[in-house]
Design brief:
By secondary structure, the chain is of the alpha/beta class. It is globular. The strands form seven sheets. Strands 1, 2, 3, 6, 13, 14 and 15 form a seven-stranded mixed β-sheet that branches. It contains 17 helices and 25 strands. The chain has two domains: 233 residues, ATPase, nucleotide binding domain (Nucleotidyltransferase, domain 5, 2-Layer Sandwich); 262 residues, Nucleotidyltransferase, domain 5 (2-Layer Sandwich).
């Protein structure tokens, strides 16, 4: 049998089981989408059904491959409250659940002042339950008995690790990912963990992604056909998994522009700390697999794009696939005329402009997205697909530009775009136009999250640091040429910001 590494790559939409060789070549992949399990009107993760599917796929793979290690990567903002044996005792609520303004005020009354918390924990105030400490506070308020009964409060990757090994754990990239639960100054759990009464429920010590948690349990071995010697690593946060190959292979200063539903812009920096004007903004610090600071800014770029492009499609007579595409002159015209704009944010408080609401503007007339969707008020430019797409792409680029600056982007640093927007040539050429002092590249790294997670498993197999895996990493970079001179964006950019 061929030796292999299995990765459970758990995104909000797609759940995957991906196999890699011990030379980090992908050899198999299965994926599935799970509908939310509704409980008391809340969308929750269907943990039991997901687990059954993971075990089924591993059993299928075990007939052909000798799986030696399992690594887990998951989306952020999710913890699971369990009993001593790792059985959930409270619902695992989607982090997209929107709560009232009063709820957020109650949380900060308990946890502390927003900017001070951001300075200490590297975490900004997000909407919904995107800060996991808020999600735990929500559980405490809605399900007090279940919350109080929990023996463990487990980060999502480590929840799956416990299901497979029976051992609780915590790992740095996840604890440090906008949770409010990690204090950068003390390098330990924060005062918010004390305020929530969960310090003794959070596993300690906080370990590394490539540490071995333990072998799979006898029950898992029996249900999957895997060798009882198959071990599970600690697990890793998905954005940090995507960053890992670049940290190992790049010898230059760079910002990773990882694009999808969320656009996550990550800049490895030498030291932790905010500039005074950054506090209160959606800029924060991730922790790398080596627990070093990664200055990060995010926004819902993919969701912004898909929401508006679908609306533009709905307003056309012809099918979306028959859209005429904008050309260079369309972009030049939109920028020159400065009369048509699309402004963030689809989900208020989710990105770089927390005071802005989604709307379109034409000749000074503002139309709320909700009114456009209800056909109450439609700017004429949205019915012209070439103009509308140009305005939309410019909007996403300007949002990316702000996020890049907030990561501390420096002159001559590379900008590496991967994910969904690498296929949008207009977006990338406009981005290159906006940054004449930086090189914008498209990377060819496919399934970056599962690849990074596989690196942690391979490092554990060899008892080595992931830095020693550089020989397995071959990332091709395609340089993007600018669409327009940088000055073409200047006046439009100013007008766009003035409207926000």
């Amino acid at each position: 049998m061929t030796d292999a590494i299995a990765v459970l790559d758990i995104g909000m939409t797609n759940k995957k089981v991906v196999l890699y060789s011990t030379e980090l070549s992908m050899i198999a992949e299965k994926k599935r989408v799970f509908s939310p399990l509704m409980r008391d009107g809340f969308e929750t993760h269907n943990l039991a059904e997901m687990e059954e599917w993971f075990l089924q796929v591993l059993r299928e793979y075990s007939r052909e491959y000798a799986i030696r290690a399992i690594a887990v990567s998951t989306h952020g903002a999710t913890f699971v409250c369990t009993d001593e044996r790792g059985n959930p005792v409270a619902p695992c609520i989607y982090y997209t659940h929107e709560t009232s303004r009063e709820f957020h005020d109650q949380f900060f009354a308990l946890a502390g002042e927003r900017k001070e918390l951001q300075a200490r924990t590297g975490t900004p105030d997000f909407s919904a339950l995107i800060n996991p400490a808020k999600g735990l506070f929500f559980l405490r308020e809605k399900y007090p008995e279940a919350f109080a009964s929990a023996r463990w409060v487990l980060p999502y990757p480590q929840y799956w690790g416990m299901r497979f090994t029976g051992k609780p754990s915590a790992e740095g990239t996840y604890i440090g990912c906008h949770t409010f639960l990690f204090d950068w100054r003390n390098e330990d759990y924060s005062s918010v963990a004390d305020a929530l009464g969960i310090r003794d429920k959070l596993p300690s010590p906080i370990r590394r992604a490539w540490d071995v948690l333990g072998p799979i349990s006898p029950e898992i071995a029996a249900r999957t056909g895997l060798s009882p010697k198959t071990f599970v690593t600690l697990g890793i946060h998905d954005s940090n998994a995507s960053l890992l190959p670049h940290l190992v292979s790049s010898g230059r200063d760079f910002v990773l522009n990882s694009t999808g539903t969320w656009c996550v812009l990550m800049h490895p920096v030498e030291k932790y700390g905010f500039e005074p004007d950054e506090l209160g903004k959606v800029v924060f610090f991730n922790r790398s697999a080596w627990n070093t600071p990664i200055k990060t800014a995010i926004f819902l770029g993919g969701k912004e794009y898909e929401t508006w492009i679908q609306l533009i499609a709905d307003l056309q007579v012809r099918a979306p696939r028959e859209f005429p595409q904008p050309d260079r002159e369309d972009y030049a015209r939109v920028l020159r005329e400065k009369k048509c704009f699309i402004l963030p944010e689809i989900v208020p408080g989710s990105g770089q402009f927390p005071g802005s609401t989604a709307r379109a503007v034409e000749d000074g007339t503002q139309c709320a997205l909700s009114d456009i969707e209800q056909r109450k008020n439609i700017p004429a430019f949205l019915c012209d697909p070439r103009t509308a797409q140009a305005v939309l792409n410019i909007s996403i680029v300007l949002q990316t530009e702000v996020a890049l600056h907030r990561t501390g982007l420096k002159k001559n640093a590379d900008i590496l775009t991967e994910g969904g927007f690498r296929n949008n040539s207009d977006y990338n050429r406009l981005l290159a136009s906006a940054f004449p002092d930086n090189s914008v590249y498209l990377t060819d790294l496919q399934e970056a999250t599962s690849f990074g997670a596989a690196m942690t498993a391979l490092a554990a197999l060899g008892g080595i640091d992931p830095l020693e895996l550089s020989r397995f990493i071959h990332i091709e970079k395609a340089l993007v040429s600018p669409m327009l001179p940088p000055s073409a964006l200047d006046a439009y950019r100013d007008a766009w910001h003035a409207l926000i």
